[in-house]
Amino acid sequence: MFKEIGTGDGGEVGIMGSIGENIKYFREKAGLSQNQLAHRIGKARSSISQYESGKITPRMGAIEDIARALGCTKLDLIGSYVEYHLMKMPITPLDTLTADELRLLDAFRRLDANARHMALAAVEGMAAV
Fold first, then answer.
1. Whole-angstrom Cα distance, residue 22 to residue 17?
2. Residue 31 CB contacts under 8 Å (≥ 6 apart), including other chains
């Protein structure tokens, strides 16, 4: 479940939750049903349902389409989620990274979104062994 968080600048209350919870929050805020959102972005209603339930994570292209349809930004949908998880990660100063780690980071930054997703899955799979 997501929780509402203040923006700190007197602006609108943001949310901190999964991407699916954020999609649902902004869809309901826009007054749209899952069917209406699905129609606007050319997807099946079941896709919207699976996004919102967290069964599947939409690709960046779908997130862009959803944000456009809901009148919000991509960061509205993924930003709080990403920031929340980054806050939980230990910070490693760059000067403590090995040469191999720096090479990996440099190569990773040159990948497109799909390749980054595949690279992360491969590295996480190898690290789990």
1. 6
2. none
Q: At what angle do helices 45-53 and 60-70 cross, to 10 degrees?
A: 100
The pLDDT profile of the chain, 129 residues, written as one tens digit per residue, is 344 443 333 334 444 567 898 899 999 999 999 999 999 999 999 999 999 998 988 988 899 999 999 999 888 888 655 555 555 556 666 677 788 888 888 888 888 888 888 888 888 888 876
CA distance readout (Å), 30 to 56, 69, 95: 22, 9, 46
In the chain the domains, ranked by start, together with CATH numbers, are 3-87 (1.10.260.40), 94-127 (no CATH)
Give which of 59, 58, 76, 56 is closest to 68, Cα–Cα.
76
Phi-psi region of 8 (alpha: psi -120 to 50; beta: other; left: phi over 0): left
